[in-house]
Amino acid sequence: MDSPVSIHRATLGDAAFFPDIERASGELFRQLEELAWIADDDVMAEAAHRPLIAAGTVWVARDEKAGVVGFLSAQRVGRVLHVWQMAVSPSHQRRGLGRALLRAAAVFARDADLEAITLTTFLEVPWNEPFYAGLGFTRIPEDALDDRLREVLAKEAQAGLPRERRCALSLNPGVLAD
């Protein structure tokens, strides 16, 4: 029987679990021949999560028995909360934890009177753009991208992610927070 999972703000100690969770969740990309290499690619370093945790913009899914099984790492940028990474351990996927993590971020953004939650992701990869669209995120047209999101997408392309397969999404926090 599955043990209960709850969503909490991350602690600095939680960051140690994030690289392994991200790496394990990336195994899904092996299903897509042209993107399978991502499963072996670098993940967000533990140290990169720490300032975001200190800022209060990182949440974890904590299984009563297994410990940290998922996380969402975000950053407040002006009037926007930008999601840098979200990952859930394969053993806990398809249980609504991604949605719960995003809801926690949306409640934070709504309560902080932020205008939007943004992120970048793969177009048409089932657990990427379609997943987020199902939660109410909308694709930002290329000609409507602000400088910040253009820069994020450009840096991703420099890191090897195929720019033509990437997009930026936005959500009004009230959609998930209510």
UniProtKB/TrEMBL annotation:
Q: Which residues form the N-acetyltransferase domain?
A: 5-158
Sorted alphabetically, the keyword list is:
Acyltransferase, Transferase
Q: Name one Pfam family in it.
A: Acetyltransf_7
Name the record gives this protein? GNAT family N-acetyltransferase
The organism encoding this protein is Myxococcus landrumensis
Q: What lineage does the source organism belong to?
A: Bacteria, Pseudomonadati, Myxococcota, Myxococcia, Myxococcales
